[in-house]
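To close the section, here is one more complete example, presented without commentary so you can practise reading it yourself. The ligand is coenzyme A.
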Amino acid sequence: MENIVIEKMNEKDVELSILTEKTHNIHILNENILKEDLKKENYIYLVAKNNGNILGYIGISFVLDSADIISVVVSKEHTNKGIASLLLENVFKVCKEKNITNIILEVRKSNIPAQKLYEKFGFSNISIRKNYYDGIEDAYIYKKEL
Ligand SMILES: CC(C)(COP(=O)(O)OP(=O)(O)OC[C@H]1O[C@@H](n2cnc3c(N)ncnc32)[C@H](O)[C@@H]1OP(=O)(O)O)[C@@H](O)C(=O)NCCC(=O)NCCS
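Output:
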């Protein structure tokens, strides 16, 4: 897709960013959490925009030289066009600027698309958290050294 720009999320992007989750019937964040996170110095959210529409977003938090990917979501109708890849590449750039040496994230055991995405970008499955999601689904912990 042409004309995709990656920008830092601001408060007016919050509502449309949350809508990208709804296209998958998932609920990772809500508007209040997102608005609070945007005020925090150690959190960064990026959005992928096309003509003002938000196609997807990614969130990361930082502690010392580690970053944690909070979530990456692309509107269902825009998946498989390389948008999550673009968001991740921009996150790597931000991490390098901040001298981050490793990135960690959790992903549902059933979420094969996300696992494939992370593996494509050099993340490895380093451990498992049993029943992490709602006490019923395991989480895989993925890590990438920068
Ligand atoms: C996972 C998700 C973010 C991928 O976004 P996307 O923009 O479609 O990803 P891209 O087009 O950049 O794809 C990059 C790679 O991801 C993997 N991938 C993406 N969708 C896939 C699918 N349906 N099945 C298998 N692998 C998939 C592939 O390795 C792909 O590389 P390839 O095109 O060379 O095969 C998107 O499906 C989504 O928003 N899912 C719901 C939210 C979610 O589960 N987020 C992750 C946990 S927070």
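Once you have examined the tokens, check your reading against these statements. The first strand starts at residue 4 and ends at 8. The chain has a mean pLDDT of 97.
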